[in-house]
Amino acid sequence: MTDIITSWDTAAGTGDWVFDPEWPMIWTDQHGEAVVDEAGGLINAIPTPTLQRSDEITTAVLISLFSDAVASDDDTLPDQTGDRRGWWGGSIGSKLWLRQRAKRSATLLTQVRDDIQTVLAWLIEDGVASSVDVTTEYTKPGMLGVQIVIRRGNTSLTLRFANVWDLA
Fold first, then answer.
1. Burial 120-133 (b: 16+ CB within 10 A, else e)
2. Distance, CA of 153 to CA of 58 (rounded, Å)
3. Pick from 113, 114, 111, 100: which is nearest to 143 by CA?
4. Angle between helical axes of 106-119 and 56-66 (0-180°, round to 10)
5. Predicted local confidence at residue 1, as pLDDT
6. Whether the predicted model's global pTM rises above the 0.70 cut
7. Could you tell me which residues come within 8 angstroms of residue 68 by beta carbon, excluding any fewer than 6 positions away?
8. Is the pLDDT of residue 83 over 80?
């Protein structure tokens, strides 16, 4: 199964879809058939980039980690806005956003690891993976990094985030 690539821009703190400018966009009719000209040639749209396709687990992990979950009433919000964030469509995302202004400490490493294990538990519950191992560390002074190893059968996928965010 293929999926659209979702990339994460650490510097901007945003995710986006990745486009491939080399794939032509083919016009299709209401039945999904390619539209052809009188000579039988394919009609290409104005050359526009199309979305690249990749491993769907990576996209699911990025959405799980970097979408903001609703803060509980007992969570300490990182700012004074009172905004508990979250997605209006249901429970999705993590509480990593609550840690973004935290001070560097061993406790923070444990909190981030626990947050990630909690938000990725669905991979095991839904049978997508047999295990998910999370390691957190300070990659440089003021930078928190994460390694996630997702195992399924004899295969594994390792995702590394060298700079999840800059710490205060």
1. beebbeeeebeebe
2. 17
3. 100
4. 130
5. 42
6. no
7. 85, 86, 87, 93, 94, 95, 97
8. yes
